Amino acid sequence: MTANIPVLVILLPLCSALPCLALTKVNRHLGNAVVKIACLGSFVLSVIQLTEVVKNGPIHYAIGNYAVPYGIELVIDSLNAVLLVAFSLIGILTLIFAGNFGDRKRPMMIAAANAEIALLITGLLGMTSTGDVFNLYVFLEITSLSAYCLISLGGSRGVVSAYRYMLVGTIAATFYLLGIGILYGATGTLNMGDMAKILNEGGHDNAMLVAMCFLIPAFGIKMALFPFHGWQPSAYAHAEPGSRPLITGVMGKVPALAMFRFFFCIYGTDFRFVRLSLILLGVFSVIGMLYGSIMAMGQSDIRKILAYSSVAQIGYISLGFAIGTPISLAGAFLHMLGHAFMKGGLFFCTGAIRYKYGTADIDNFGRIYKKMPLTCGLLVIASLSMIGIPPTVGFFSKWYLALGAAGRHEWIYIAVLVISSLLNAVYFFKLIEKVFIRQSAGLKERWKSEEFELPVSIILPVVVCFLAILGLGLFNVRIIDILLMTLEGVGL
Amino acid sequence: MMTTIDAFLAAKGIYLLTLLLLSLGVAGVIVCNNYMKKLICMNVMQVAVIFFFLCLGQKDPGTIPVAMNEAVKAAEYINPLPHGLMLTAIVVSLGTTGVGLSLLLRIKEKYGTIEEDDLLKKQAQQARRDKKRRELHHPGDDE
Questions:
Q1: Inter-chain contact B88–A134, Cβ cutoff 8 Å?
Q2: Cβ <8 Å between B142 and A360
Q3: Alpha carbon distance B79, B56 (integer Å)
Q4: Residue A192 to residue A334: CA distance in whole angstroms
Q5: How far apart are CA A116 and CA B106, in angstroms?
Q6: Which of B38, B92, B138 shows the shortest C-beta gap to A167?
Q7: Which of A55-59, A237-241, B134-138 has the lowest mean pLDDT?
Q8: A339 is in which domain, residue-wise?
Q9: What is the CATH number of domain B2-59+77-136?
């Protein structure tokens, strides 16, 4: 049983998603309950797996016991073990949260949305744990297809954004397939470890460069990195409200992990054009960090603010890759963890405010803190973390990024890091000002409160995100240590 | 001179053709105004990648990868793995096309058009209407 944990983490959400609709036909609560229990199980197993990995080192799991370079392998090292815990936690919180949205008279629609969320979780966890490049493609497509469906559930604008995302996303997937096709042609293997070994023998530099030309746009589109981000703001803003925390918090991070795998684990630093590709990535991230922050300042819809700020925040993660030292990579991964909770948390807040008042325009948020203290607490702590104020996680991830940049004397990166944080401060302080100081807009409550503030299923994710942002900040040294167990020796 | 070009085309010409097909597909997705045409171009692009993989698996004196009774060495079979991979890719492309077509149906239902220009115009109108309604009446009520 314990030996099979890596595959069970992925299989549980998948096996619950498929019969969800049929079970809902039997009883309207049964399908949703099964999905939630399965995802909770997946979260618990990933925590157990993390303790195993920290104690005994990486786990290599061969699916179906096929010998490794031929069969599919799952590789769980300390990096993706930590990420799996965070992503499955946000997944289960999103499932709990999403039950409050959608038309209550149509249980099948709610069940369909839950099944899609579970499939999205399957794809994301699968992409995180796989050690096989083609398997990564399959999980990438599971993720994308369920994301298209979830975005299209968000009303008429959602359908158009989903369609546009589908076109761009398919180009990305096709480019990825071409890239691995070229690498497969050069090495004759699909297993990441095996491919790394063959490529490091040298002599494949040109094929690797061509493959890299396809892989950077492919991951760039899926991450919404700067020049490839066109689909992202409208897709994030118009997605189905219940599933937004998962889509915005996690969906951009997992391709970033895959990009890390290709850059540092498969290509390695012996690749002749490694400097060139890192500089290219650095330019993209620097422009993205400034562009995303400036665009976010001009918006008044909170969903658009957060969507554009994601463009900037993804820039921080790829900046960590572009610097390329172990400490900056650890900073990038800490930012991945932290930003998943910050952005997920901010979208939990947006969803909570929308649930209570039905508005997403920050001009209507005046003195909302009196009615929704917990939600506004998370709003403030997540905003402070976005700006990078201690003791939140945002400060520490930026600190490690700056430390890595200083180690390689990349002063431009540090300057941009500081400027982008100040720009973040402009629009997040605007948000805080609206919530605490502005005159109340006299919003009517849509939902008559018998319980405190909001239903438990909305308060729970809010509180967990609040604690996670503070906890990741306070215990950052422990997490960096765990991350460095894998990252030591990787990078420049 | 001619012979080197001929030899190159005979060996690698098929890759040039798949590259051409891929560029056509990508250009079509970018340039076409009609969403249905974009979807078709997307399919052309995916087919190009499928061809690319099949070419990788091909070799000249090679037979189909089915175990035979006569003594056939492993070297005489063509590589079956790209075919297996492309079966998966075809299924994925089928799924994507299905989702795309159903989204197109919904777009047509909601906006009455699948031409990008008209759609953008209608979205702008919708945004103006929403804004006016929000200013006139009460705050709140987003879609």
A1: yes
A2: yes
A3: 8
A4: 24
A5: 18
A6: B38
A7: B134-138
A8: 273-492
A9: 1.10.287.3510
